[in-house]
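Below sits the subject:

***
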Amino acid sequence: MTVNFYSPEGLFDTSHNLFCLYNAYSIPNGHTRAVSPVDLFPRHDFPTLVLGALNIHHSASDPTRVLSSYDQFICSPYFDRASAQLFSLLTTPRFYTRFPFTSNHCPAVLDFSFANTTLLPYFSSWNPSLWPTGSYHTALSIILSTPLLKPPPRSLNWKLTDWDHISPLQVDLTLAAPPALHTPNSLHLCFDDSLAKIMPLITSNTAFKRPSSYSKPWWTSELRQVRHIYHHTTSLMRKNQSSPVLACVPRNMDFKAIQTAKRVHWSQFLANVDSHSVWDARKIAADRAPDRLPTLENASSPNKINNTLVRYFLPPGPSPPPPPPIHAALKDFPLILRPEVSSTLRKSSNRSAPGPSGIPYSIWNQVHKAKERLLPSLFTHLLTHRYHPLAMKKANGIVLDKLGKPDYWAPASFRIIVLLETVSKILERLSALRLASAARSFGLLHPNQCGSLAGLGCFDAVSTLTY
């Protein structure tokens, strides 16, 4: 059965107006199957999905099954045709799709899903764990979503920051002078000008990250040669200098070589586990649930998903009161001292996720060591005028799925964590320490209050207990 979906506005936020779905049930017919590979795998330029119960066995979907020569004879025409027409297998290995009710047969993978090269970028997940339907075969869930149309920006490697070049320039750095009229706009421009002198100096002298050797520790020089042969053969096929059937051979060699290299490497890794690597081995051996992307109802594009989540988690509220036209400076406000900033940075974790700028606490710690009056003067100016700049209110929202939800079609199945700028969190911690010290000095805290106070801990809390 063939189903065609047409959209004049385009599918998956692209210019493709047509999406074709082939659903087949291929019953055994002697030494062949009822649906031929030629009819099942056409060559289309638009997104095409092929799925169904083909009643064949293959090692790509069931690697633990021992295939007989008859099984290989039946499945080879289908997978050869799929490779020749540039279809990719979507079925996750080792997930059975057929559970017989009798003990004469064992569970198997008889249901397959394929996507052509045009549809493959939109494939999100393949899941066979839906509710049983009363049949031998389980119901499958295939999620197609719009991919990221542009790759994420390259991240900086903060371990390679050139401090030998930055430190002399930072010593001669002078921040912007406070404005004569302390309006919100003038304070905002003054802070942005000061921050624009510090951050570009750091980022311009920091190298970008490169792919680590630990990302593919199983990669070898032999795999590089096999991959080169595979790409060379594919290039010749595209130029009509080689037949598609011959191109399948290096592709299968590349796939099998990668699987063998992975199996050998991780087997050796698990065999040599010691007390230092036991937790890493546990993470590798344990099954990890795939990341769920928000697939919300009536939201088919990234912009629509973003707007739906923003409306749910951040509903519009009453308008806040307008800010005062002039932020008068506080009289006799004590300056932020260098030990205060040093103590705040010492208690900050370098593994904390940074905000939009990507600058972690370790970088601000180095900035403070190079010129100790830089950050105190910047923060003193803001606290004196009781102003929190707009640049510190920007944050990254990370969408995480909640475990154990029956479905993920509603925003309530997700949660958002906010990653603020680290320089903003330094200012907030300095303010919190000042407020805690003032509350303690003026006797605003309960005598038995022990939490969030410096110098008090669990023993002090226990000593306040009475019979």
